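S.,

As promised, the adenosine-5'-diphosphate run. Input:
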Amino acid sequence: HQKIQYESYRKNFYVEVPELARMTPEEVNEYRLELEGITVKGKGCPKPIKTWVQCGTSMKVLNALKKHNYEKPTPIQSQAIPAIMSGRDLIGIAKTGSGKTIAFLLPMFRHILDQRPLEEGEGPIAVIMTPTRELALQITKECKKFSKPLGLRVVCVYGGTGISEQNVFLTLCLCFVLGCLGRVTNLRRVTYVVVDEADRMFDMGFEPQVMRIMDNVRPDRQTVMFSATFPRAMEALARRILNKPVEVQVGGRSVVCSDVEQHVIVIEEDKKFLKLLEILGHYQEKGSVIIFVDKQEHADGLLKDLMKASYPCMSLHGGIDQYDRDSIINDFKNGACRLMVATSVAARGLDVKQLILVVNYNCPNHYEDYVHRAGRTGRAGNKGFAYTFITDEQARYAGDIIKALELSGSAVPSELEQLWATFKEQQKAEGKIIKSSSGFSGKGFKFDETEHALAN
Ligand code: ADP
Ligand code: MG
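Predicted complex:
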């Protein structure tokens, strides 16, 4: 980098409006509490905004927000947007479905539009790193709602699509899946970097790829990182790639949104299928449904059984090739098929508006996975339902599910409490110490290491 003469660029665009300037520190604290309990770490973070106009974005963006019924900023958007607009590096933690994408997109457009146009062979100015193809496509779609009216060129890069390097040049914003960016991509003009779903990147072992790209981008870039959770292992990476970041966290830790009605059913393995049909009978007419299983072969097995029972459905897991995965996700999003059997990782970050029901056919084996799965529904203020099957053999997972229910203010069924109590007694009798997998300390992003092991 020392050999390269980088042009100077501007990253502070934020002007606080008088209405916000007048707010006292007490009022700001109170407002942050109202916004689902925003906590901010790091000096000099701007106050949270209340309306879109206050973030100082263009008329075209405001119109696009209106057109897509984004009435006002969500809590993470209220706080992260002014912070990023003022040029700060940022770590944003908020549960799935809370609108993190727009929180990094709006400042990105302002940033890009301030710079001189790209010349032949130059570009991109902003890059967005994502762990999966589905997420990359989703972000690109959200991005196009604004980039089209703004006349900006956005390109999504993922493996096996035949995107040529030529296409990547002259692109202002590049959204890509880690590992899929060509070596020759010119990163010299990059001044804005987004690392999205950082916790997933860890689960998937992408840390070295993140570092490799960061090493190739000018050190005085602006970097923002978003995640649903902040596992301890992420702190080291955050420290390496961010410069005096502001940390914005919404809610104490990721919890299932209160719009999701959660049910947990203690059940024997061989009774699950009938119970599933009963539940589907209730909800299928009302919207789309995802059924989570823990393994690929279980997904295919359940798919067959459902087909036999005259439920048209699809399955989504890591064993399905990319082309088919795209079309499956498309069919599911546009409602052509409304029932899907999936593994957790395959469905990570999937945002389907009309999703009414999530069924955990196999019990999730740790807290975060439960929250992520249940978080597929109840998005953007819609009501959703989550059913979880747990067998006696899975009693060791009951503790995390109880915690998830409690933290989101849901009632804990007595059978589940019983299951957990019995399990604890047994373990005690055998002289084992029980450690819940989630060591939430209550005041920071301190999680237990065991959470990072993500099954399938
Ligand atoms: P996250 O990345 O936090 O999981 P997303 O950015 O995918 O969440 O947003 C979830 C859903 O909420 C998307 O369908 C998005 O279009 C919608 N959304 C985002 N911001 C707003 C807003 N301010 N008002 C209403 N809906 C919004
Ligand atoms: Mg997201």
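The mean pLDDT is 85. Residues 321 and 327 are 10 Å apart (CA to CA).

- D.
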